[in-house]
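Thanks for the sequence, V.! I ran DUF937 domain-containing protein right away. Repeating your input here for the record:
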Amino acid sequence: MAPPKIAPRIPSTPRPSEPAAPQRARNTVKPGQGHPAASRFDTTPSGKTPVALSTPAGVVAQGNRPAPGSFPSPGDVRTIAAMKDPVARNLAITQGYHDLSNAMGSLLGEENTNWSTIASWASKQAGVSIRQEDMPKVFVDALKGGGILGGALSKADDLLRKLGLPALPLGAIAKAGTDALNATSQAVAGGNHFVFNDVGFEFARFVEAFQGDTGYDAAKVERFAASIPADKPLLREAFSHYAEAMFEKDPNKKAELVLLGNTQVGLHEQTQLQPYIEGALNAPVKDVFRKILKQSVEAGANALPFPANLAAKAAIKAGVVDAALNPLVDQLATVFRAAVTENMMRLTLPGGALKLGNDLPPPKGMEDVLFPPHLRTIENPELRALLGRLDRTPDSLHGTAAKDWSKLDQRMNFVVDLMRSRQADSQLFGSPLGKEGHYPVPTPSRPATPAVA
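Predicted structure:
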């Protein structure tokens, strides 16, 4: 079956400069293509009263503002990042991303999801690895099920018995798995913490700076961009585009500006995450398994009566035990990496779980068109050039699979299509934790609690 491709591009026409000009043809939704639950773009006009072109005398114009205390301030971001418990910190980060997503939605409009929207769900998924859920069970099930791992364990036990040593205890393997998992969990928690402290901080600053604004102020935008460290050029550009999108009336231009900002933040984020992802996926698990198992064998040898203990120690010194353990260590590492990769290579969204090693499925209701109406063709030159660098199969979801998540180019090839295809999915604004955040966050001098209630 041929992979789905975006519908043929409608010949582009110059974007109108007059507000009253008709909508471009590419954004016309054909009967049956829309799906209310999938995209706010595909819903019919709400019939809201038009916004007044001028403000009555004596009335001060007010821009959009998120509710006070509903999103983390820059100080709250720093307080959350300072939490020592990685599990509690991850919960607070996940909630913080969600609340920043909604705050950005109040400024940009909820017709477009922003980077923080996806980040809240990715942070929730990271929590699975940080909390080490279900991983020890993987080893117990593998041993009970036999197969390659069971066979390697049986061979190692047979040789140990011939040397007069006791069989390897299952607890030693579970301990080795736990130690290896700790290294992976720490790498994931480190990346989760770093990005929130880095990128989440700038989102909080942006909301705080631009809430209530009633018009585009180029000088203010330039000052804000300049306040972001110079070694973060992608963030400078991204937040400049978000500010421009706030006051863009054309829905096509607005959607493309938001996607441009999302993509630039995503590229910055994934570049910064590279050492953490490599650390999680390429942890030296063989060394961990070998160390624990050898310690178990040595303890068994020391417990033997004389002269059996001398013979066992001689076998260990001669490398006979290493030769018996190496195949088992290799199989344990293989099972462990497969389990870690399965956990890390998954992203659960409201519409279902996505396997990052598979091509992205089309959003529900957009099986034939793939992308929301305002993003079915890309006309912004800067966005088109950036997508051209990152997206291996333009205007298609075929070829989006990231087979090796440790490779930055494969991650970005997946991420750009994820953000483009899901940018109009209003379900993503829902809370990953089903809770509401309350700010300010208690400081360490007060009782330490996650920023959720």
